[in-house]
């Protein structure tokens, strides 16, 4: 499962024939890792453990998670369908179908550089501490305590714990369940919507309607970005299981970026389907007759 590094050499820098086997820096890293991990001479060290040891950190968890599992952690944390159902009222109510359709796509595209940046951090420092460890390593010593406190308490920790608790053991079944829910929602809306509620493409992609909550149309449109920010938040949770993933330096960043891309495509498909099947009366649709906008759509 693990990618093994060379054994601890008995003669630093040379093999038994006297030829150089690896660079000094490489040997220094292996030797440091051996000291931290307590590896005896001649034994091998996994690339994952060597990377952590180079940070002065000793891994304690078993590495049993594959890339698919790490992807499932990120994708499952987002919960595309329920998140859209909860937050679409902000984009649709602020700027009509244009706000709902286009800000989701643009918002996801703008989040890709964020995922790449977090993936780089997750690849270079694949610890289960994730954000908190990164802040501790990258913040100047004088500000470190305060910035770590901010990083720990500023987010909604209770919500994060609930999310992680519900996805702590992601398997293929739950990944399939997410896609099945999205597909069922798309098919049900497309097949069951009466003709009088079916919209044209021009309405879906060009109709801007400020429902009157904000006087400034530009500000109303910007508020529509609340939907993509809420829906795809959670892709960074792959970092929380980095110490349990094999080849974490690659699996974690790939999971972050790929889960965001998949969420962008599948979520946009759901949003477009909703826009085609909700009718043209945005104000009435946002009245939430059945407790949620998408519930109104389904009924």
UniProtKB/TrEMBL annotation:
<keyword id="KW-0472">Membrane</keyword>
<keyword id="KW-1133">Transmembrane helix</keyword>
<feature type="transmembrane region" description="Helical">
    <location>
        <begin position="65"/>
        <end position="85"/>
    </location>
</feature>
<dbReference type="InterPro" id="IPR002293">
    <property type="entry name" value="AA/rel_permease1"/>
</dbReference>
<dbReference type="Pfam" id="PF13520">
    <property type="entry name" value="AA_permease_2"/>
</dbReference>
<feature type="region of interest" description="Disordered">
    <location>
        <begin position="1"/>
        <end position="20"/>
    </location>
</feature>
<keyword id="KW-0813">Transport</keyword>
<feature type="transmembrane region" description="Helical">
    <location>
        <begin position="254"/>
        <end position="276"/>
    </location>
</feature>
<dbReference type="GO" id="GO:0016020">
    <property type="term" value="C:membrane"/>
</dbReference>
<dbReference type="GO" id="GO:0022857">
    <property type="term" value="F:transmembrane transporter activity"/>
</dbReference>
<feature type="transmembrane region" description="Helical">
    <location>
        <begin position="173"/>
        <end position="193"/>
    </location>
</feature>
<feature type="transmembrane region" description="Helical">
    <location>
        <begin position="213"/>
        <end position="233"/>
    </location>
</feature>
<protein>
    <recommendedName>
        <fullName>Amino acid permease/ SLC12A domain-containing protein</fullName>
    </recommendedName>
</protein>
<feature type="transmembrane region" description="Helical">
    <location>
        <begin position="97"/>
        <end position="118"/>
    </location>
</feature>
<keyword id="KW-0812">Transmembrane</keyword>
């Amino acid at each position: 499962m693990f990618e093994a590094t060379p054994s601890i050499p008995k003669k630093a820098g040379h093999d038994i024939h006297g030829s150089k086997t690896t660079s000094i820096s490489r040997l220094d890293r292996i030797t440091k890792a051996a000291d931290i991990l307590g590896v005896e001479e001649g034994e091998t060290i996994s690339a994952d453990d060597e990377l952590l040891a180079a940070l002065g950190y000793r891994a304690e968890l078993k590495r049993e998670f594959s890339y698919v599992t790490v992807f499932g952690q990120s994708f499952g944390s987002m919960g595309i369908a329920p998140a859209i159902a909860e937050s679409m009222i902000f984009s649709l109510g602020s700027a009509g179908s244009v706000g709902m359709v286009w800000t989701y796509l643009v918002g996801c595209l703008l989040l890709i550089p964020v995922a790449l940046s977090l993936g780089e951090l997750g690849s270079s420092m694949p610890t289960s501490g994730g954000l908190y460890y990164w802040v501790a390593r990258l913040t100047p010593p004088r500000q470190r305590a305060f910035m770590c406190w901010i990083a720990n308490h500023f987010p909604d920790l209770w919500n994060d714990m609930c999310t992680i608790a519900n996805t702590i053991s992601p398997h293929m079944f739950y990944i399939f369940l997410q896609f099945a829910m999205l597909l069922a929602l798309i098919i049900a809306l497309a097949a069951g919507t009466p003709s009088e509620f079916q919209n044209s493409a021009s309405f879906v992609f060009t109709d801007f309607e400020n429902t009157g909550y904000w006087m400034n149309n530009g500000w109303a449109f910007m508020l529509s970005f609340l939907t993509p920010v809420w829906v795809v938040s959670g892709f960074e949770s792959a970092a929380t299981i980095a110490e349990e993933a094999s080849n974490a330096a690659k699996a974690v960043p790939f999971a972050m970026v790929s889960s965001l891309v998949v969420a962008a495509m599948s979520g946009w498909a759901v949003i477009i389907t909703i826009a085609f099947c909700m009718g043209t009366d945005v104000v009435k649709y946002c009245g939430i007759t059945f407790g949620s906008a998408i519930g109104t759509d389904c009924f």
